[in-house]
Specification:
single chain; alpha/beta; nine-stranded mixed beta sheet; two-stranded antiparallel ribbon; 20 helices
């Protein structure tokens, strides 16, 4: 027992903390958006704390240009619609709003939605900011103008007055309540009511305001896209380019550093894998969404420090085009980076690329070899797999059954604790509003509202998921989260049993959270680990065998 404890302690010293001078060149952020992803807290927390990265203790990313000046702020919209009027969304084609270098602090509910083209002049910036708001949701947008005109003839002045009286009845013109009322009108097909509320909301939301105002801006975009069944027109009206891959990567880097959600997920998964593989000589890790490969940097270092020497490690990395775009190239970039790191730490290493969507993976793509101890990692990825409600193929359960037949020593699951898969539109809207509000609130605790990176982070890393959940249906709605209780049912049906969590991992994560706000909470219950923001669970992690 003492030997086992010493082994775990030695590995834990490097499992989550890596020397900057040796490891930072291999670290890049990895996201699914959350990606992402998280709950509503009543009232503004009003945090204006300075931005700190804490990389001295928990660096898992390379020192990218996250603190530099990034001049692109684009629309989060992923909504598009088919010629027959059905709602569709294209996650790979990512239209964005206009460019921005910095965001002014705007806290009044009367402030408009804001965005900007690249500018170094403050006055010009404010002008561009207002110009962008008009483009995104203002009456001059092509789609909005045609949509408004289509309803204008059907609304008498007396009806408008009655709708305005209804607006006054909403307590204190509470933005959250107006958003909910608008979503209810959209859900019930009450187009006139929805249009009046949309007009009111345009005067209340702002991407440079309070957390609920900022989230409300993206929610409003999703509602307009859903109501008009013409998201492609909205995307066209935004008239902007996608961000360069290095810019998107830098935004991911900032989000990774300012919020603990992703570090929590990767650390908990790595701890379970390290524990299961502590006595193995040949280890094969299958990662169903490897992205930048940063999760495995501390894992390789941990194995290098293992008493008795490191095992032979082989990683199969599964990828999609979104990660390839952010990375700026194919999986060979990940393989080369991890191989170089492994050589530095004298760890025998192989990389096996599988460039495809996780839902397309078949047994032949995994490169299974005899004599290897197998670990499978599902971190922030299974919610993208269509289930029985979307496709008769039900890739979500198919993958779990396929993995179970491989007899892995451990399978790790990390997912956002949210219910947006099979819920009807209105309850799904309420869940999205509640869930993502917490993320926007937590960002306020680290990045001030005037911070030039905040709009870029929220726009590129969070907003498109919000729009996808609200505006899209069917196979085009790819953000389909489930609560951990449902995931447990799926794993049990596939034949898995729970794998116990490591108390050492839990203690390490608690230490991590001390570097952030005291409003984050960590709780272990029912064999899983939950990270929450105040009174809301945000991310859940567990392991299976």
């Amino acid at each position: 027992m003492q030997a086992s404890r010493r082994r775990r302690t030695a590995m834990s010293n490097t499992l989550y903390c890596e020397p900057v001078q040796k490891a930072e060149a291999y670290c890049l952020p990895r996201f699914q958006t959350l990606e992402s992803h998280l709950s509503y807290i009543n009232g503004s927390l009003g945090g204006n704390h300075s931005f700190q990265t804490y990389r001295d203790r928990y660096c898992m990313l390379e020192a990218s240009s996250a603190t530099g000046s990034y001049g692109v702020y684009h629309s989060p919209s992923t909504a598009s619609f088919s010629s027959n009027g059905s709602t569709t969304c294209n996650q790979e084609s990512q239209p964005y709003l206009s460019d921005i270098r910095q965001s002014p602090e705007t806290t009044n509910y009367g402030s408009p939605i804001s965005g900007s083209c690249i500018t170094d002049d403050a006055t010009d910036f404010m002008h561009k900011l207002k110009e962008l708001e008009t483009v995104m949701l203002g009456p001059d947008a092509d789609f909005q103008e045609s949509y408004d005109n289509s309803l204008a003839s059907s609304i008498a002045s007396s009806e408008i007055d009655s709708w305005r009286q209804m607006m006054l009845a909403i307590p204190r013109r509470d933005l959250k309540q107006v958003l909910i009322a608008c979503a209810k009108a959209v859900s019930d097909g009450e187009l006139v009511t929805a249009q009046v509320l949309i007009s009111e909301l345009r005067q209340m939301v702002s991407v440079s305001g309070e957390p609920i105002q900022r989230l409300g801006a993206y929610i409003l975009e999703g509602l307009v896209a859903r109501l008009g069944a013409s998201g492609s027109s909205i995307c066209k009206s935004l008239r902007c380019k996608e961000p360069a891959s290095f810019e998107l990567l830098s935004y991911m880097h900032v989000l990774y550093e300012i919020c603990p959600y992703f570090k929590f997920g990767y650390m908990s998964a790595n701890g379970a894998i390290a524990e299961a593989m502590k006595d193995e000589n040949r280890v094969h890790i299958i990662d169903f969404q490897i992205a930048q490969g940063s999760q495995w940097v501390p894992m390789i270092q941990a194995f290098a420090a293992r008493p008795g020497g490191p095992p032979h490690i082989r990683i199969t990395g599964i990828d999609d085009s979104t990660s390839a775009y952010a990375r700026g190239g194919g999986l060979d970039i990940v393989g080369q980076r991890l191989s170089k790191l492994a050589r530095t730490f004298k760890v025998p290493f192989e990389f096996h690329p599988a460039a495809m969507s996780g839902s397309d993976v078949q047994l032949k793509n995994l490169g299974i070899q005899p004599g290897e101890a197998l670990a499978v990692n599902f971190a922030f990825t299974l919610h993208h797999m269509p289930d029985e409600s979307v496709s008769t193929e039900n890739h979500r359960d198919r993958l779990l059954r396929m993995v179970k037949n491989l007899n892995p020593k451990v399978v790790t699951l990390v997912e956002q604790e949210s219910n947006t898969n099979t819920a009807a539109f209105f309850p799904r809207f309420l869940e999205t509003l509640d869930y993502y509000s917490a993320m926007f609130e937590s960002i306020d605790m680290t990045l001030s509202r005037g911070h030039k990176e905040r709009i870029n982070v929220e726009q590129h890393c969070l907003a498109r998921d919000v729009v996808n959940i609200i505006a899209c249906e069917g196979i085009e709605r790819v953000e389909r989260h489930e609560l951990l209780g449902k995931w447990k049912s799926r794993f049990r049906m596939a034949g898995f049993n729970p794998y116990p969590l490591s108390s050492l991992v839990n203690a390490t994560i608690k230490t991590l959270l001390e570097s952030y706000s005291d409003k984050y909470r960590l709780e272990e219950r029912d064999g899983a680990l939950y990270l929450g923001w105040m009174n809301r669970d945000l991310v859940a992690s567990c392991a299976w065998k």
